[in-house]
User: Fold Putative amidophosphoribosyltransferase from Geodermatophilus normandii.
Amino acid sequence: MGGLGAALADLVLPRTCAGCGVPGSALCRRCTAALGSPREATPRRPPRAMPPTVAAGAYAGPVRPAVAAFKEHGRAELAGPLGAALALAVGVHAVLLPGRPVLLVPVPPSRAALRARGRDCVRELATAAVADLRAAGVDAGCARLLTRAGRVRDSAGLSVAQRRANLAGTFAVRPGALPAGALLVVVDDVVTSGATLTEAAAVVRATRRADDAPVLAAVVAATPRPGTPAAPPGRFPAGLARAPTRRLDRLSGPRDSD
Assistant:
C-alpha cells in the first residue's frame, strides 16, 4: 500500500530533484554526489573549543536548495539521502576512533522553528543516519541528550562572537546518566560559524569524565571556505562508500583543554 500511495502521489505531484529540479528521484545521482566528499568543517573564524567537525559536503550548489526543501518546504522524503550524508560524516569519526559505540546527539530546534516547521528536522536526519550506520555494521544509536534551556534571537547578521554570546546558556543536558565510553557526536544539518555546535558540545562535554572519549560533531554540509579541500577517498566501514585515508589530527580530540 505504501508503494501504491507513493506511485499515485507521483502521478499527481511528480517528483523533482530538490537540488537541480530535474524530474525523477528526491535527490538525483549528480546532486547526491555533492554530499559524497567528507571534509573537516573549517569556519573562517572558528570559535574557541569548537569540536572537531566533519561535513559530508559543502553547503553550496545543489546542496543548499536541497537542505532548504527538507527544512522549510516539507519535503520529508529528503531525510533519506540527507541522513545518508550525515551517516557518511559520522562514519569518519567511527573510522578514526574505532571500538566504541557511537551515539548521535541531535541539536534540538528552537521553539519558534518547531512551531514553524511542525517537526524536528535534525532528529529526523539523525534517525535516518543511525539506520544507515547500523546497516554498515557500526554500533550506532541516537541520544536526545540536549534540550533548549533558553531563548535566542535570530542570528542573521551577527558576528561569530555575537552568535556565541547569543547562544550562551541555550542548551542543557536532560536528566539521566550519560553512557560511559560511548563516542558522542553532536549532529546538525549545516554549520556556518560553528557557534551552535560549540555551545552544544560544551554542555555535553561538561558532563563527561576526563578519560571519556572526546565530544565530536558532524553535519550534512558546511558553508565552504576557500582553499578547504575535500578529503581523499579511502576505506569506510563495510557498506559505507567512502572515507578519508589521511588521518585528521584534530579529529582525535578536543582542540582546547577547557
